[in-house]
Amino acid sequence: DRALDGVRHRALWALAGAAIFFAGLLPVALVHNQKLEARTLYFPLVGLALLLALAIDTALALLRRFGPQRTQITLTRTFSGIVATLVALCCLLFSISQIGSQHGYRLVHAFDTSIVAQLRQIVPYPPPRTVFVPLGVIESPVNTGNPQFDHARPMILSAIWGGHALVQHQYRRDDLWFTAWSPWSGVAAHSFTTSGLTTGWKRGNEPAEPGTQDYVPWTRVVPFTVEQGGRVSLVRRLIAVAPSGEETRIDPPVVANLKSQHADIGPTRVVRLNDRVPGHQPDWIDQWHWQDGSAAEFSSQRVWGQALQVVWMRAKSDVPLLLTSPDSPASTPNSRGPQSTLTTQLAPSQSAQRITFRATIGEFNLAQGKRAGEATLTWSDQTNNLELGSIKLTDRWVRRNKRWATLTVDLPPHDRPITLRCDMSVTDGFFHDVWVSAGVRSLATSPATQPTK
Question: What is residue 431's three-state secondary structure?
Answer without folding.
Answer: coil
